C-alpha cells in the first residue's frame, strides 16, 4: 500500500531541514512569549502568524532559532534584514550535499570545513545554521560596520558559535574576496545572498507586491516585512550585476576555493550569468533548485578545480 503523505509537510524543503513540518506555535510561544501577541486565527480556524508584519516575522524567526538551533540570543537592529530561517537552512543543507558530491552519508563535518559568507549581515544566519548543523567554521564578511558589530555580538553571546565564526569588515565594496582571503587561504565553499534590487524604488515596488499578496492591502510606502537596509537590498545592476562581478573576481581566487556558490532569486538572470561563466573558464557549473512556500529560487555553484585537484583537496583537507 502507498504510504500516507503528511499533509503538513513542506515537501519543497530539504529532507534535513528542521522546519519541514508546520510550525509548533505553542512551543515557539514558550521560548519567545512576545510571539503570542502576533498570532491570529485564520479563515480555516488555525493559528497563524501575520507575515506582513516585520515585528511578527522577526519574533517567529527568533523563536525558531531558539527552539531548533539552541540560539538563545539573536538581536540586531530592526532596520536590518531579517532572514526566513527555513530557506536559509535549505541553502546550508544544499551546500553540504554539494561538498559531499551528493553522497548523503559522506558529508564533511567539523572545523576542517571553512566557509566564507559574503555579506554575513547583522543576523549572522548562515554561519549560525552551518555551525550548529555541521560544526563548520565560518568567515563572515560585510561592508557595513554596524552589521559586523551586531553579528559579532550574537557570536559572543552564544557559546556554540564563539570559536567557529570570524567576522571581517570588507573595506572596499567593489570587492568580494580581495581583502578577505590571503593568497595562502583556502575555503571549502563560499555562500552569498546577493542584494536583490537595482534601486530603492525597485525594492519598494517588490515590497508592495509582497504585502498585497500577504494581506490584500495596497500601501504606498510599505514597511519591508523582512526589513533590510539599502546596502542589503540594493546594488547597481541588481542581483545579476552583483553575481556577475563576484564570478569575475572569483577567477583570481580560483585555487582558493572548492565550490563558489550564490543564491539566484530571479530565474531570468540565469542566462546572462552563464554567459559570464563562459568568460572565466570554470571546470564545472551546477544549478540547484530550492523552494519555500510559493517561492522558487536556486543556487548556482561553480569551481575552477580539475578532478585531480578536487581529489587532492579532499585528501589533504577533509
Automatic annotation (TrEMBL):
Catalytic EC class: transferase
Pfam families, per database record: Methyltransf_10 (PF05971)
Recorded GO MF terms: 23S rRNA (adenine(1618)-N(6))-methyltransferase activity
InterPro entries: METTL16/RlmF, rRNA_lsu_MeTfrase_F, SAM-dependent_MTases_sf
Keyword S-adenosyl-L-methionine on entry: yes
Keywords: Cytoplasm, Methyltransferase, rRNA processing, S-adenosyl-L-methionine, Transferase
One GO cellular component, as annotated: cytoplasm
Subcellular location: Cytoplasm
EC identifiers of the protein: 2.1.1.181
Catalytic function, reaction form: adenosine(1618) in 23S rRNA + S-adenosyl-L-methionine = N(6)-methyladenosine(1618) in 23S rRNA + S-adenosyl-L-homocysteine + H(+)
Primary location group: cytoplasm
A biological process from GO: rRNA base methylation
NCBIfam families associated with the record: PRK11727.1
Function statement: Specifically methylates the adenine in position 1618 of 23S rRNA.
Family, similarity comment: Belongs to the methyltransferase superfamily. METTL16/RlmF family.
Identification of the protein by name: Ribosomal RNA large subunit methyltransferase F
UniProt organism field: Pricia antarctica
